[in-house]
Amino acid sequence: MLRWIASWAARYAPTVEQQAQKAMPELRMALYQAEQRILDAQVQAEYYRSRLAFCESVLKNGIEQVSDLRRDPHPGAPTLKLGPTLTTAKSA
Length: 92
Fold this sequence. Notes:
This protein is mainly alpha-helical. The chain has a domain at about 20-70. About 70% of the residues lie in helices and about 0% in strands. It has three helices and no strands. It has helices at about 1-10, 15-60, 65-70. Helix 2 crosses helix 3. The longest helix is centred in the middle third of the chain and has 46 residues, at about 15-60. The mean pLDDT is about 85.
């Protein structure tokens, strides 16, 4: 009886390749979610950097000069930097 159970388990047990195949969709989703969290954190950090710079310039120059600058920005004003791109998972 034990020999039969052992041979049955050896015959029907999932192989390492099958286990890896089953894990792929979950791992791809986890990678995508992690990359989304990184992008969201970068957007949030840029937002707070902008708010901090605005408040510092208000303290330094006063609200009148800062509000005039925000209405008519300089042509050489810095723009948002591009973040990392999402990796593309290639399915085999």
